[in-house]
Amino acid sequence: MTTTPVIDVDQLNLTYGDFHAVRDLSFQVRRGELYALLGTNGAGKTSALETIEGHRVATSGTVRVFGHNPRDRRAVRPRMGIMLQESGFSPDLTVRESVRLIGALTERTDSVRRVLDVVDLTRKADTTVSQLSGGEKRRLDFATAVYGTPELVFLDEPTTGLDIQSRDDLWNAVDTLRDAGSTVVLTTHYLEEAQQRADRIGLMHRGVLRQEGTVAELTRTLPGTISFSLSASAPAPPIQAAAAGDGTLHVETVALQKDLYTLLAWAQDHGVELQGLEAGPTRLDDVFRSIGNE
Known about the structure:
By secondary structure, the protein is an alpha/beta fold. The protein has helices at residues 45-52, 73-76, 95-106, 112-118, 134-146, 164-179, 191-197, 215-219, 256-270, 284-292, and strands at residues 7-16, 19-29, 34-39, 60-65, 80-83, 152-156, 183-187, 200-205, 208-213, 224-229, 242-243, 249-253, 275-280.
């Protein structure tokens, strides 16, 4: 297997007049991985991805997709599927016609019936786009992105508007794509999806890539948490805790297992009930908030 990255971004800058939307952005996406590029509103991730997808010209820096300039549509586009945040399908085309059209434009080959079956739109094949619900349109967006099982798939807010079952079905289809060797780039505001699915995550803020790594690497940058409540007659706990307005005690710790063991042993020895006990590592949304406050 080649070690050449599918996406290679080096010192990318994008400016709009005096506004510096993306500043010295560098990252790589490896073959076969799911990379989530996340950011606060106005972070610059959309501008960066539009450049990687070949829709925008960089102000400076280089971007390579499969080793090519992404503006080289003949070399790149047939190998790439894109699910945009909002579809641009003609409302008068049927679902079947829309999928077939995207296949022709991207020069990828596939069975329309197979793709519609993947996204559970077979019964809607002859329905016009204008008659689809919001969730059905998102499934159609996904169908056109994965038509032909492209080597690289961009998913922009893929589960917005989908019910729980449709979300599960979409992620099952993504898993199948990855089993076939596809590389996936995800942007989403559902951070739990990125936390559960991404091999690596890049966090952007104000045009800059602030942090990058696996979920474990990112969450280790902040302390874990323990929270619980005690009865009024209970002695003081053995570890320092801050009280919230409702009386819940919160502990922030970089030694979660050790402090949790200490707390549980103390509660056992003193016959104390730790009411509403919760403990765990930092979540991705906590890391996300921390960069938003920088």
